[in-house]
Write a structure and sequence with these properties.
- With 178 residues, the protein is mainly α.
- The chain folds into 2 domains: 1-73, no CATH class; 78-178, no CATH class.
- The chain has 6 helices and no strands.
- The longest helix is centred in the last third of the chain and has 50 residues, at 110-159.
- It starts with 8 loop residues before the first helix and ends with a helix.
Length: 178
């Protein structure tokens, strides 16, 4: 609703509160939970909207930076992007270590921060592996498409009266063999 320019925040608040009331009447356990508010306020919806816009802006900026790096690294950047991300992870790891030494990250929050860093590293590894699989799959598709095209050229050459040797020559030309 907040993304829809025809709906004001006040209307969104009213709709959310109406939905909460309906769910409460139906006995929905999630809204009967004491942690669930009876209603949401306009200021809570506004705070949420501002938070989501801020998160969206940061994501947009991150994507722009990533796109710039990918464009700078070339058309098949998987290895280079992986190296870049690995450098970023090393830097983050070093920064976390410094923050821990400076007590900017205390003993209570350190496991969560280190866990997030570990999860980020694992995710990066999986993304790099998936990217490499995609590149290999795309390469295989191109190769198969080229082979299919070469076969069609050879068949068409024979249908047009060329010799088998001439047809083979054109197949090889399509494949880039000669």
């Amino acid at each position: 609703m907040l993304d829809n320019p025809r709906i004001t925040q006040l209307e969104a608040v009213e709709r959310i509160n109406a939905t909460l009331a309906e769910l409460r009447k139906s006995g929905d356990p999630e809204v009967l939970d004491p942690a669930c508010p009876e209603a949401v306020s306009k200021s809570a919806v506004n705070r949420y909207d501002l938070q989501m816009r801020d998160v969206g802006e940061r994501l947009r900026q991150s994507r722009e930076v990533a796109d710039r790096w990918i464009n700078k690294l070339g058309a098949a950047p998987q290895g280079q992007v992986g190296n870049l991300i690995n450098e970023i992870l090393r830097t983050l790891s070093f920064d976390v270590t410094l923050f821990m030494q400076e007590d900017a990250i205390d003993k209570e929050t350190a496991p969560a921060v280190v866990g997030m860093l570990k999860d980020l590293a694992l995710t990066t590894m999986r993304l790099e592996k998936a990217a490499n699989l995609n590149v290999e799959r795309e390469r295989e598709i191109r190769k198969q498409t080229l082979e299919d095209a070469a076969e069609k050229v050879g068949d068409a050459a024979i249908q047009r009266g060329l010799t088998k040797e001439d047809a083979q020559f054109w197949r090889e030309q399509v494949l880039g063999i000669r």
